[in-house]
Design a protein that fits this description.
Arc Repressor Mutant, subunit A; Glyoxylase, beta-lactamase superfamily II; single chain; alpha/beta; NDM-1-like; 15 strands; Metallo-B-lactamas; RibonucZ/Hydroxyglut_hydro; Metallo-beta-lactamase, Chain A; 2 domains
């Protein structure tokens, strides 16, 4: 992981999943904890080499690639952990993530891996949107649901740590179908971030940018384009089942999902676009022969 200093207090460790860091005198707060012990050790090793403190951890949301190394930090540094309400419940009970992805069923063993379920974490301080003072750190949390239920971006000392509220331009096209749970909330969160005044921003996946709002606009355009693609598939097929729609859309986007975990992530995202179209009353849904079916609202046949 490459350590990059952003200003006199803020840093980012650049990797496939970025980790932030803020120093204030004898205290240091990490922002997210990477996917596992091995990844976060690369971060703390560099901090220790520079004599920088490790006392706090802010977890932006309860996805395993952002908190998997937290238990290592608790065990070895006794960090005080801050996290959003609701997300904290999942962090304390991480089996919930593979459970909700698996439609509420007890997850198969293959879903209980480090990509979907990190070690359980006890949260010391739960936060909602607003201004906060925790020991030496003053920061603002900004609710950015859509990727996760109560994800919080963090603005501190002029830097916006945006978590997975938006993706870097290259990462958008790499992921092809970014994981979201709600299109409406994702778009509202993106519009909210365009109004945030910051010296620069760090996404959870992607490059630090001073002029980050163009990238946010690209995210908005990308989600709107995927929403239109789903609509066009239903229009072309006239009637289509949920299972077939997921299959057609994933094939059209060229994603790889040969194992169950990635497939369930893609399925959740496709369903988010579907529910947006239903909520906009552009698509009608119904049950036929024990299948969840869709058609363009106003079209004949059901």
């Amino acid at each position: 992981m490459e350590m990059k200093q952003l200003n006199d207090q803020c840093y980012v460790f650049c990797s496939s999943v970025n980790v932030g860091y803020v120093r204030n005198h004898d205290q240091g707060m990490l922002i997210d904890a990477a996917i596992d012990r091995s990844a976060i050790r690369k971060v703390v090793r560099q901090l220790e080499e520079q004599g920088l403190p490790i006392t706090h951890l802010f977890i932006t949301h309860a996805h395993a690639d952002h908190y998997g190394g937290a238990s290592y930090l608790v065990k070895n540094y006794g960090v005080k952990i801050i996290a959003p309400t609701f997300e904290s419940v999942i962090l304390a009970n991480p089996i919930l993530e593979p459970t909700y992805l698996f439609s509420g069923n007890d997850p198969l063993d293959e879903l209980r891996n480090k990509f979907l379920e990190g070690p359980p974490i006890k949260i010391d301080i739960e936060v909602n949107e607003g201004q906060h003072q925790v020991d030496r750190f003053h920061f603002e949390t900004i609710a950015t649901p859509g990727h996760s239920y109560n994800q919080m971006a963090l603005k501190v000392n002029g830097i916006l740590y945006a978590a997975d509220s938006y993706f870097g331009k290259d990462e958008l096209h790499k992921h092809k179908i970014p994981y979201i749970t709600s299109v409406e909330k994702t778009l509202l969160s993106l519009e909210k971030l365009k109004n945030v005044q910051a010296d620069g921003a760090v996404p959870g996946h992607g490059l630090y940018e001073i002029d980050f709002k163009e990238t946010i606009d690209k995210n908005i355009e990308y989600h709107q384009d995927l929403l239109h693609k789903v609509y066009c598939i239903i229009l072309d097929k006239q009637t289509i089942s949920h299972e077939e729609l997921v299959s057609v859309f994933c094939a059209d986007m060229g994603v790889k999902s040969s194992s169950l975990g990635p497939f369930l992530l893609f399925k959740t995202a496709v369903t988010a676009y579907l529910t947006a179209l239903i909520n906009e009353e552009k698509v009608k849904h119904y049950i036929q022969h024990y299948r969840w079916m869709f058609k363009i609202n106003g079209e004949e046949g059901s």
